[in-house]
Structures are given as C-alpha cells and as structure tokens.
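Consider this pair:
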Amino acid sequence: MSSDKRDTSSSPPPRSTVILLLGDIADTTWRMFVPTIGFGALGFWADGSMHTTPWLSIAGVILGALLAGALIWQQLKKVDNDK
C-alpha cells in the first residue's frame, strides 16, 4: 500500500500565468470601454433631450476616453508599484 501525502498547508495554490493574464486583459478592457461607451450613451441621450446633436455625444465620448486613459494610467502605476 502506498500512502498518499498531500500538502495540507493553508497557503493557496499558485495561480496560473494564463489566469493572471486573462484577469489583466479583462481589467484593462472594462477600464477602456465602460467609461467611453457610458459617457457616449449619456451624451447621445442628452442630445436627444436637448436637441443639440451631435455635440453632447462627441463631448461624452471625449470625456469617457479621457477617463479611460486616467483609469489605465492608474492601473499601470499600480502594477509598477507592485514590482
């Protein structure tokens, strides 16, 4: 009979590189698209309400893109500080 000895320590198993990479991709993706699409849609709605087409839509997309850039910059700084 062989005895099956497993590691029973409380430390979590190491995470796969693929899982970490997919997590980073998902994190970057939401930071890029949610603000841009969200503010663009908000501008589109405001244009319809105030009859200012296309100016508030354009402003919303620009504002969303700037916010997306700031969120990605924050993410890069965090990754750089973690090294």
About this structure: Residues 32-82 form one domain. The two ends are 46 Å apart (CA to CA). The chain has a mean pLDDT of 88.
